[in-house]
Write a structure and sequence with these properties.
37% strand, 14 strands, four-stranded antiparallel beta sheet, 276 residues, Immunoglobulin-like, alpha+beta
Amino acid sequence: MKKLLLNINILLCFFLVFNPSIIAGEENQNILTMEELSIKVMPEFAYHPNDVKKEHPPLLIGYQGTMRNLSEQPQKGQIELPLPMEEKNFRIGFAADYSSDLSKVYEIEYIIDQEKGTISWTTSEEILPKDVYKFVVEFYTDTIMVEKEKKTLSYQFKSFTDIGLFNISFIQPLQAKKTVLNPAPEEKKTHADEEGVYSYFFQGIKAGEEKSFTLTYERNETKPAIEVMEKQDQQPIETVNNEKNPAIHSIAAFSGAGLLITGAFTYFVKSKRRKS
């Protein structure tokens, strides 16, 4: 009976994380908190591995979340995450979570609920007391507006829970020009001192809070950035010490096109660094 009650509490606390408007007993509140959520928005970076028709510039978006178990007991249960499934040609690219020591990446079996607009999965490992749980979900849409060479992307994010730290980065496509972001970042932010990455940082956003951005640029190249990079640079992804990074390659092996945000974004940065 005790085990049954524990499982009920686990499922309830996970559900509460993504549905903060639901009120439950005090003992079930704040067991898991969303400490950080990072979003990367990558227009024209790659097509979905299963795309046959490639007539519209793709949009790849990745969520990387960090949650913490504030309870005194290990937790394992179902995560339910809302995604913009109403967007044009929405499709999941990849979903995974990490071991507690971050040394392993587990591709997760997920369930899509089109009516609710959510993706759900069961955690691969128990989350130890006071420990963190990390996950990543990447998905594609065809929401980039095209007017000859000019491309426009309107992106809105509505927070599904309280988030301690929230950041969003827009990755400028290779060979794009006249890039404009609205609202403009307070100052140009780059990743690893590289050009073409524009980031926004927020602390303490609340459930229901919305952030809206508009990105415009010009690009006459029709190939996605990953294909351009592969053609220009056939060198393997390496670490600073010029050794192959097995973590990146193992992550890439899980994803159909090797586009999990960690691997793809690192490849993007290192490729540009070698050319400079």
